[in-house]
Amino acid sequence: MSDVNGEETDFMSTKPTVLLVHGFWGGAAHWAKVIVELRARGFSSIKAVENPLTSLADDAARTRQMIDQVDGPVLLVGHSYGGAVITEAGDLPNVVGLVYVAAFAPDAGESLATISEVHPPAAHDVVTPDSDGHLWIAENRFHESFCQDLSADEALVMAVTQKAPLGAAFGSEVSEPAWRTKPSWYQVSTEDRMIAPDNQRRMAERMKPLRTVELASSHASLASHPAEIADLIEEASRV
């Protein structure tokens, strides 16, 4: 494609790098369907961080390392607890925006625990700690709680490969929320059983996002509605 002067322009190169940040009970591969969607839409630079889920400080530090490796603008996309991570790590100058996917968006001094107390999730009783302090979703309740709109086979794989966070991460507090200074977008999952939809709406409303999208989705909207999530990311990439 040519610009007004007749010179060739690579519009793929004008898109920011999209850095995908997973949440609890999953890893970077939870973004598989979104990654395929984004590549089909011309996003040539897509990265997915693999966070240790040991503490908010550790996960934000790892995410900042990934951001620092990018020479150019970065659009952060966080699912679930990944929203808290991008809230903490998104203050770097090359971060151009934040996209929250059924995600926590804490304010200063808030943690996932304090937010969840406002509107407890429907599946509040499915998470149990092991003897090492890691939190697990009961395998036999993973499908109904985390991803009820996915197939039984997909849910089984998610349940067996779940990445259990340390309980301490649930109580980690955000320092300075990046959404106060960066453009933001938010996707609400109206059938979410892990983060109450009213909590999602409350967090979205106070951050004053450029757009809020509601999907009739489980918590795993990144897997059950990848095209709609890619739509929101694509919109955010143009600002």
TrEMBL record:
<dbReference type="InterPro" id="IPR000073">
    <property type="entry name" value="AB_hydrolase_1"/>
</dbReference>
<dbReference type="InterPro" id="IPR052897">
    <property type="entry name" value="Sec-Metab_Biosynth_Hydrolase"/>
</dbReference>
<protein>
    <submittedName>
        <fullName>Pimeloyl-ACP methyl ester carboxylesterase</fullName>
    </submittedName>
</protein>
<dbReference type="InterPro" id="IPR029058">
    <property type="entry name" value="AB_hydrolase_fold"/>
</dbReference>
<dbReference type="Pfam" id="PF12697">
    <property type="entry name" value="Abhydrolase_6"/>
</dbReference>
<dbReference type="GO" id="GO:0003824">
    <property type="term" value="F:catalytic activity"/>
</dbReference>
<feature type="domain" description="AB hydrolase-1">
    <location>
        <begin position="18"/>
        <end position="231"/>
    </location>
</feature>
